Structure formats: C-alpha cells, structure tokens
Amino acid sequence: MANKTEREHFPFFNRTVEVHRRAFRRTVSIYLYPNKPIKVVAGKLTSTKVIYEFLIAKKEWIERNFVKFEEKRAKFPEKKIKSYETFPFLGRACPLRIVITVLEKPFVVVREGELRLHIPRNEWSADVLTDEQPQLLTEIRRFYKKEAIQKITERTELWAQKMNLYPKALKFREQRTRWGSCSSRGTINFNWRLIVFRPELIDYVIVHELAHLRHMNHSVDFWGLVGAHIEGYEVLTKELRSSHYLCEFLTPQN
Asked: What's the pTM?
C-alpha cells in the first residue's frame, strides 16, 4: 500500500513553501516549477526549522531559477484558450478560430493554417468569441495527442526503414522535458507533445531514439550514427532545450 503524503505550507520571504511529508524519507529535496509554490519533500520527523535552514542555504539557487522562469515566461507568454490566440503545431503558429458545429461534442481540426475549435450549437453563446474557454483545453489536448501518435508513428516507420533499425513497440507518454527514450527490450517511448515542434526537430528525436537500438549509450559511435542521418544535430539539440516551454499550454490547469 502506498504511503500517504502529508502537506503543509509556510511563507519563505515573498514565496510560499509547500511541504510534502513522507513516512520513510530521510533527506530534504527542493523542486521548483513556474507559477507554483516551492515544493519541499521531507520526512515526517524532519522539523520545520531544519527545512527552513535548508531553504536559506539554497536561497540564491532558488532565486536564480525563478528569474529564469520569468525570462522563459516573457519569451513564451501564457496561452489563453480564446479566439485568435496562436498555438504552435508542427512548428507553425496557428491562430485559434472558434466555430459552431451541429455535432453534439466539441472537436478540433487544422484547416488553412488555423486551429479550428468546433463548439456545439447548444453550447454557443455571445461570449464564446470573446471570452476564454479554459474548459476546452481537454479537446485541444485530445487533438494534439491524436495527431502526434499518427504523425510520429508514420515518421518513425520511415526512418526505421532508412536506418534498418526497427523498434519492438512504440509508446506515447506525457512528460515535461523528456522527449523520448529507448528500453533495452527495444521499446521506444515518445513524448506526444513533440507535435508542437517543426518536423526537423521531431525527426531528430526519432533518429536519436532509433540509434539507441544499436548503441544503448551516447558514445562516439552513437553520435556518428545520428550524424550520418541528421546533419547539424547539435543545433537541433540546443533548439529543443531552449524551446521546450512551447508545449506548456498543453499542461492541464489543476
């Protein structure tokens, strides 16, 4: 049976700390996320004083990271589910257009460079075209995931033939920063949020994971195999690292 996590809160300078206590935890760890409290994981018997002193020792590191979060926020502003907001899809900035449908359920398609969110007639109102529609993020997520599975599967099959490297299975997950992984059994996992990026970046991640079917490491031979198929992969690696916030709008707001 899993251990229950207890939570408590206290102020830390101009921020809030959320403490998650676990029964057999012996160490103290800090986790930082944009627009969220400082998360601390500690044992049930760890005193608040010990946690506070640990935070004080890490204060400069904490502040540096929150400054980075603000810089990222300025570069990648928060997206609103509303008309004419733009959303990345396969590397293109697609404006959201809200339209009416006679069908009973909402759905999303891409047409003529637009992300078209169809809302059933019985849910339509005068405010639909002007107000935010955060409840419809579920439909946008469903569309992105469906498109990702289809397109990434197709590209993986193409690259597998070119490289003569065939995975045993493909799986799709949702992760914050990891784009892919390859198991020793030959199963490749892809982050479906890759669908926000341009095709060249998606292909690089695919080739990277397929190359692990031959080299389960990041050796010279591994990078030689990647480089034989993806010219300038070093630039693509940096681009992925610097633009992962593009997919943050797909994170459920809870």
From this structure: 0.75
